[in-house]
Amino acid sequence: MAKSRLLGLQRSETVRQAAGDSIGRFVLIAIVAGLPAFLEAFDSEIYSFGSTYIVPALTGPPYLTIGLIVTGYAIGIAVFSLLGGFSFDRFSVKNLILISVAIFSIATFATGFVTTTPELFATRFAVGIGVGMFQPAGVAVLGDLFFETRGKAVSVWATFFGVGLFTSPYVISPFLPAFKIPFEISGALAVIILALVFMFIPSTFKKIGKRPKIKISDAFNYNIILLSVSVFFFGIALFAGYLGYFSDYLIKGLLFKSSSAAVIASSAGLGGFILAFPIGFTADRIGRKYMVIFASGLVALGSTGMFLLTTDFYGLIAFTFIFGAGWGVYVDILVALGQDSVSDTIVGSITGFLFFIFNVGTIIGGPLYAELLGANHFKTASIVAVVIPAIIAFVVVLFTRKVVTSNIEEKPKFLMDSEKTGR
Predict the structure, then answer these.
(1) 23-29 average pLDDT score
(2) Of the residues 96, 259, 274, 376, which has the maximum number of CB atoms within 10 A of its CB?
(3) What is this structure's pTM?
(4) 35-60 confidence digits (pLDDT tens)
(5) Is 63 helix (H, G, I), strand (E, B) or coil?
């Protein structure tokens, strides 16, 4: 019997079996599973880019500021990332992604229709719930397909994320100060991706027999503890340094025009888009540990250059590109190393835990920078809230252990066939 082209409409194969059958199916599943990353970046950058116009145009209590609304979004992601990761190990990952993308679609669409800041807070929190669930689920799907392809697969997520960051400012800027249509576009794109997941992702991810009892020490082992510390400090640096106050630093601290600041900031997305897959590919060849170190090193170098080493336009473009090249794939490759380090039966839970710790760091980063900034003290705030956390994140991963033994019994058929033929 011929196999259905619509993998999501059959129940005879698991995601892992379908992906391992041929390189074409592997690529198809990886692309569809990675598409929600585009939604995450597209929506968040539309809101970040437009928030200066959106929030002042709404009525509501004065305490619901741009910062507090962003914090609500981050809290939604942090809390529900634990649920998303835990659910991956116990329920249908297809249904989990469908539910979370549906929540995201409704919430991002509704953002375009808000008239008060409480309504905006509610819609952004709901968007955070959707992202918090599909973020760890999607990365767990990609990373847990096969041990041999883990780095390349998770880099697909990073690549689509970079595409979303790069394209979204160009979508919203023609409409500002109006913002309804960009969020309608975001909601429509989510519906399209929802349909693709339904059609091409099988219902069951993998076959698991009786679940072995996992000790706490096995789950939160040496590598997981170090990776948690590293990704926590990276979360602080990211939300303080780039997503939080980098544009303010460029415009108010260095007095760049907004157009020049936009060019500098956009180079981060370009760096992530260009280098995510090469870094993931190399990670599968030489070991995920070394590319986590490399990506973290790029973040540390880039953030130091962005805030301390230069104020030159082209120098800032270069260092922001370096920062983005590291940021674009760092979390995903770090999570892949975490997946290497635990039993295959708890990969989802560990993925969700690492994203939770990362998002706790992001919640802290923005308010920390704001507190240190005071009356335009950009240098002090940048050193304490950005550069030092980025360097700590880099130093910590130096001490992680390389994992060379696969924790996945299955091996992709297309790889075994190529080994037999010597290609």
Answers:
(1) 91
(2) 96
(3) 0.86
(4) 999 999 899 888 877 777 787 888 88
(5) coil
Give the model confidence (pLDDT) of 66-100 as tens digits. 667 877 888 899 889 988 888 887 878 899 999 99
Using DSSP, state whether 410 is helix, strand or coil: coil
Tokens, residue 75: 């809290």
Cα distances (angstroms) measured from residue 157 to each of 58, 100, 142, 259, 292: 34, 16, 8, 29, 16
CA distances from 338 to 90, 280, 351, 401 (A): 19, 15, 7, 10
- CATH architecture of the domain 215-403 equals Up-down Bundle (1.20)
Rg (CA), the chain: 21
Boundaries of every domain in the chain: 1-207, 215-403
Nearest-angstrom CA–CA distance, 143 and 332: 9
Which pair of structure tokens corresponds to residue 374?
């005071």
Distance (Å, whole) CA 306 – CA 311: 8
Domain 1-207 is of which CATH architecture? Up-down Bundle (1.20)
Q: Do domains 1-207 and 215-403 have the same CATH topology?
A: yes
CA atoms of 141 and 390, how far apart (whole Å): 28
